Amino acid sequence: MQGKIGNTSFVNKALKDNDLYAKKKFGQNFLTDQNILSTIVDSAEIDKDTAVIEIGPGLGSLTERLCSVAGFVLCYEIDGDLIPVLKNNLKDFNNYEVVHKDILEVDINKDIDEKLANYKKLYLVANLPYYITTPIILGLLSKTDKIKRYVMMMQLEVADRICGKPKTKDYNALSIAIKYRSDATRVCKVPRTVFIPAPNVDSAVVKLDLYPDKKYQALDEKHFFDFIRLCFNQRRKTLVNNLSGDYSKELINKMLEDNSIKPTVRSEELDIVDFINLSNYIVNNK
Ligand code: SAM
Fold first, then answer.
1. Using CA positions, which residue lies closest to atom 12 of ligand 1?
2. Burial class of 94 by CB neighbour count within 10 A (0 to 12, 13 to 18, 19+)
3. What are the strands, taking DSSP E only, across the chain?
4. pLDDT tens across 110-124, in order?
5. What is the C-alpha separation between 32 and 7, in angstroms, rounded?
6. CA-to-CA distance for 140 and 126, rounded, in angstroms?
7. Which residues of the chain have pLDDT under 70?
8. Best of 100, 108, 127 to mutate for ligand 1, by most ligand atoms within 8 A of CB?
9. What residues have CB less than 8 Å from 165, skipping those under 6 apart?
């Protein structure tokens, strides 16, 4: 299916006719490529039993494609100036709702229970505002386990970190936090030229499939998430150096010895199970 909204002339005309401009402070880069829109929607594998949450519908290029395949689309848009234009663009559809709110402020479980409880599956699909990509993803993953799949456009560098494997330059606390809950795959790379206005960086679409049953379980999840951030605080330093401001030398040395990890190790050499074991060790021995 080809949509009517996601193309250069429609976006330019919608902005001009409504006296709007793309607001940098809200990360507004409107997608204008029907092939990429198809790739995003196809990779999410949505049907009429699926409710979709979209963050930042903008002018509706992705929303119209979602509405045509999903049972219902619940959108959160921070920019009130866009909403009347968005609703006019979507006038052929009645299976959506736009909530005028900052996604970071939303009580997501309450909204899901009130608005989307009748659908068998719940996914999130979005072309994210890049200035808050990480807080959005980590915030939602920590607040709810009701969303089973995330398909998101984001800047390439963040996508690489999310999909980062141990011993690569992209591997960091974000890679591990995502791995704790989901399998991450990069769906495609997206050139900056397909947006209005073009951002300064290229993008990529990433898909997260949440584990149906918990695959990993840290004793204290809050401690685990704080701990991995601390471990990667300064990449060039060893793990011992990154931890030594927060824990005693004795505890760190004993922890490494008891877990058969060499004292010169750097965080990028460890995998998720190592980090869970180390976090649990500290929780048990503090
Ligand atoms: N989905 C549209 C598209 O693909 O053309 C627009 C994507 S644009 C990259 C990001 C969208 O997120 C904009 O519509 C912007 O106003 C909205 N946005 C930015 N910050 C937001 C926030 N905190 N909560 C909800 N929406 C936000």
1. 56
2. exposed
3. 30-31, 50-55, 72-76, 96-99, 121-127, 149-155, 182-190, 195-196, 203-210
4. 999 999 999 999 999
5. 4
6. 13
7. none
8. 127
9. 171, 175
Where are the alpha helices (H) located in 124-245, listed in sequence order? 133-143, 156-162, 173-181, 221-231, 239-243
Could you tell me if 100 and 112 are in contact, meaning their C-beta atoms sit under 8 angstroms apart?
Answer: no
Whether 176 lines ligand 1, by a CB cut-off of 6 Å, is no
Q: List, for residues 133-182, the tens digit of each pLDDT value.
A: 999 999 999 899 999 999 999 999 999 999 999 999 999 999 999 999 99
Identify whether the C-beta of residue 46 lies closer than 8 Å to the C-beta of residue 96.
no
Q: Which two tokens stand for residue 266?
A: 């750097």
Q: What is the pLDDT of residue 1?
A: 74
Quote the CA–CA distance of 140 and 106 in Å, as a whole number: 10
Atom of ligand 1 minimally distant from the CA of 79: 16
> In terms of Cα–Cα distance, which of 273, 232, 282, 227 is closest to 253?
282
* Cα 184 from chain centroid (whole Å): 10
Taking the centre of ligand 1 as the mean of its atom positions, its distance from the CA of residue 220, in whole angstroms, is 33
- What global pTM score does this model have? 0.94
103 CA distance to ligand 1 centroid (A)? 10
- Going by C-alpha positions, the residue among 233, 228, 235, 240 that lies closest to residue 176 is 228
